[in-house]
Amino acid sequence: EFGSSRTITSRCDYRESLLKRGCEKHFIHSPGSSMAVLRNKPLSSKGSAPTQYDVIQIMPQKIALSLRPGDQTSFGVQVRQVEDYPVDLYYLMDLSLSMKDDLDTIRNLGTKLAEEMKKLTSNFRLGFGSFVDKNISPFSYTAAKYQNNPCNGYKLFPNCVPSFGFRHLLSLTDKVDRFNEEVQKQLVSRNRDAPEGGFDAILQAAVCKDEIGWRKEAFHLLVFTTDDVPHLALDGRLGGVVQPHDGQCHLNEKNEYSGSAKMDYPSLALLGEKLAENNIYLIFAVTKRLYVIYKNFTALIPGTTVEILDQDSKNIIQLIINAYNSIRSKVELTVWDHPEDINLSFTAICQDGRPRPGLRKCGDLKIGDTVSFNVTVDARGCPAEDTRHKFTIKPVGFKDTLEVTVNYKCTCGCTKETESNSTKCSSIGTYQCGICSCDPGYLGARCECQEGEDSMYQTMCREAEGKQLCSGRGECSCNQCLCYESEFGKIYGTFCECDDFSCARHKGILCSGHGECHCGECKCHAGYIGDNCICSTETDTCLSIDGQICSGRGNCVCGECQCSEPGAFGDTCEKCPTCPDACGTKRECIECRLFNSGRLADNQTCDRLCTDEIITVDTLNTDDQNAVLCLYKTENDCVMTFTYSEHASGQSVLAALKEPECGTPPDALTVLLAVVGSILLVGIVLLAIWKLIITVHDRREFARFQSARSRARYE
């Protein structure tokens, strides 16, 4: 008997309002979202557990969510990179002719690399594979005279082996001597065009798990070395290969890729999917001129890094160690099988303890550090009854996962208690949760009216006195509004006052496509805010090269930096000639780029962080009012001077002296003579002064004597 009898929605209200209106607490049905932890083993500290499956790097491991649409719930995730974790490293090498000197360099790589990796893990295995390109025209030489020797007639290197797509040579093993032996046997080949078929090889190395020997319980590294760009998807059509890659393993009995002439090169998306699926970190080891190209690839393939390879691969061991340390210094979460009707938003809590909303990764970590993430979940709607969804949260490159199962709370508990043909509903409706669900053709709180009957009282269909019946968007029947249908969407509400299409738009798209329209107001999906849900709360796009949000000079608003430091500008506020720290920031780039010294001295860090144009000059132009003059003292007590300015094109320009200004040291003999001479000069001056004083004194005494003598004579 609660509430008004004029409308079925009178029982539906905020909890506080229902209590005020006299509904007792135990009569209120309001299912809320909840979370239950199903498996929560503690994090491991070392990778050397009795069995590697006992090593836990993410906590919890399994949870269950019950979601009420529109009601958020949150849970925490902890991730730790454990010490002494097993490592599988597969070395994938370009054996085209231009890599001959690199092949000579790595002939004893296995032993040296194993020695270095033992400092990082006690369980290390090494494997080896090679690639060239598809052995079809126009990618390779296919004429009869080149079948057995593509280098036939090539004066610089007359003998080489036929080209091939990918060849698996050594499965992962802890016997590193076998790696050296296998490398010793290899000979280079020759292909026709500059790009190589390396992406074919990467995919096979990733998906042929049994043949390569990837262990489920190990850290997977795939080192890809080359000195040229790769062929991409659709390039195969130049050779008549039109079938897209199927993402499967195609190694024959000789451990060679058998699909080279049948399937196109894989796409970047397929590569990323298969690498992530098999928990493989890909390291691009490429020459300096290719760094930017492969750096762009890393933005499209999660879990990938790029390092600069010397022309003869002399730095390959240090490169691998640097890449390994770089990979182990960061944690990034990914979501697999994300249900479309569920919103997820992440907040990272890294080593400094500060929450970073919209961020799902942490960097600058040490092995053994633990980082936390807060995940907020809400459902946008109700799927079919008894629907259950499942998704997985997984750190990039880890075998460990968090499994999340989801069920939906879309009904109240009272829906299980129903009275069909109830007398409370005039015997022509079902009584459920205190209201009547009328049979077709009947209306009213108690199903007392038939459709089409004129109502004696229409005031119940007005939101307020003087307002239109049913807001002008429906008909009043039996004191109840029947809302019109609209081609634009749904009209609803007690007085037909609401709809799902009269919300703010962006470029004609309702709620920018990032929210749902409810009664004229956008309800934004997780990760978006604003009247039209155009504003993203993600902060990844605001991260500067050094990992700071907006370079520490501004705030991230709607996924874009708003610079607060006077004089700062740029996409991430990275440009600021007038900032107090401008000279200090650019000084490090001057040191590493010009003199290979300072904190950023290693090539990879310097090339990654220092992208400004640096001009060396004999004399600096200090008259430019738009340039900032910077000076600093070097380790040799010299003074280095440079100017920092921003070009109209947006490029930062640093003009530096070719060499620091150092004062010439004085000659020792000159200093000695100067000191002795100064002493003698001071002595002579003092003697002269003394002599002058004595002379003046003697003359006065003599004058007195003469005067006294004269007086004595006359007396």
UniProtKB/TrEMBL annotation:
Q: Which Gene3D superfamilies match?
A: 4.10.1240.30, Cytochrome c1, transmembrane anchor, C-terminal, Laminin, ntegrin, alpha v. Chain A, domain 3, von Willebrand factor, type A domain
Naturally occurring in which organism (per UniProt):
Polyodon spathula (North American paddlefish)
Per UniProt, residues of the Integrin beta subunit tail domain are: 583-667
Family membership, please give it.
Answer: Belongs to the integrin beta chain family.
The membrane-spanning stretches of this chain are: 668-690
Q: Which InterPro entries match?
A: EGF_extracell, EGF_integrin_1, EGF_integrin_2, Integrin_bsu, Integrin_bsu_cyt_dom, Integrin_bsu_tail, Integrin_bsu_tail_dom_sf, Integrin_bsu_VWA
Q: How does it sit in the membrane?
A: Single-pass type I membrane protein
Subcellular location field: Cell membrane
Q: Which Pfam families match?
A: EGF_2, EGF_integrin, I-EGF_1, Integrin_b_cyt, Integrin_B_tail, Integrin_beta
Keyword terms, alphabetized = Calcium, Cell adhesion, Cell membrane, Disulfide bond, EGF-like domain, Glycoprotein, Integrin, Magnesium, Membrane, Metal-binding, Repeat, Signal, Transmembrane, Transmembrane helix
Q: Does the keyword Glycoprotein apply?
A: yes
Would you tell me the protein name for this molecule?
Integrin beta
- Integrin beta subunit VWA domain mapped to chain residues: 1-412
